[in-house]
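Quick question, first post here. What does this chain look like in 3D?
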Amino acid sequence: MNAPLKETSTTAKAIEQHKSYRFVVDLLARADIQINGTRPWDMQVHSTDVFDRALAEGNLGLGETYMAGQWDAERLDEFFFRLLCADIDKTVQPSKLVFHALRAKLTNLQSVKRAWKVGEAHYDLGNDFYATMLDQRMTYTCGYWHDADNLDAAQEAKLDLICRKLDLKPGMRILDIGCGWGSFMAYAAEHYGVECVGLTISREQADYGKSLMKKGLPVEFRLQDYREIDEQFDAIISIGMFEHVGRKNHREYMEVAHRCLKEGGLFMLHTIGKNVRESTPDPWIDKYIFPNGDLPSIGQIGDAAGGLFVTEDLHNFGADYDKTLMAWWENFEAHWPKFKERYGNEFYRMWRYYLLSCAAAFRARDIQLWQWVLAKPGVVGGYQRITS
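> Answer (accepted):
Ran it through. Tokens below.
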């Protein structure tokens, strides 16, 4: 159930008389979306500000007017799915975002100093909040739904898939760059007998990790930037962290992984990716969800790894992120009453917009989820691909 909208005095007639109304109607018709229609994916507009902001600022304006309760859609995921499939986002190219694009292109937004911002803004919202939204292991990355029918099973399948792709053996020492709440480290330690060192820039995650260490698991959480580590490991894993590295740091990231990986070792890179090389981070996501985030392309990852690693395998299961995000949304919605007073209605609408618009982006294949298996050097005789 949606949270109550703010009161608005804009009438349906005033909306229809707005100077941009006919243009927006024709634009949305390409996606089979109607303004104030009766279908679940139709856009219910309560203020003409929506037209002005969306046309001038793209998703930033669209998202902020949604957060303010100026428009809604019962099935927000389907609204965005249709919008993306019709390439409406490519039609609207707001001039007001030129500075945002130049800033992303010219500035190192993920420097050592800036890198901690996303931890404070997003991952430190509260361990109890994430515990209700995620699976029982608190895995905040895409699940693998190949043979799974629920979130817990999909996440465990993903963790086990990674362990098998890395060919983990008892006694190996593993580095987890961007370890989150330690779901991979705990699973790998329990089921494959390995020791793990995890790096995080979230104080909440590091505090949570202390509880795992108290259980006697051979896992170590470090509140540390990846650029600061210089130790040798048998294998390296990075799950859902490369999206925060930034294009200006891709090469340095790969150099860190290369210097920390023993000869003959494997490096698994699990990351969301974009379909084109030259693009600008989404301004709404950048402002409200993942500050300074920057999705890589296949070409950018290839350039960064060139001369350091051999790409042994590249596996795309981006469609599974749609299912994962929808499962997170169901959990978030079910437990929202517990957090309503703490976070408020605007946060609810922000989180709803985030989860459902991202689910739509994966559903429309606008963004992807890749698992790269990189070797130092290449695997003699060839790498045996594992997908199930």
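The longest strand covers residues 261-274.
Confidence is low (pLDDT under 50) at residues 1-9, 96-106.
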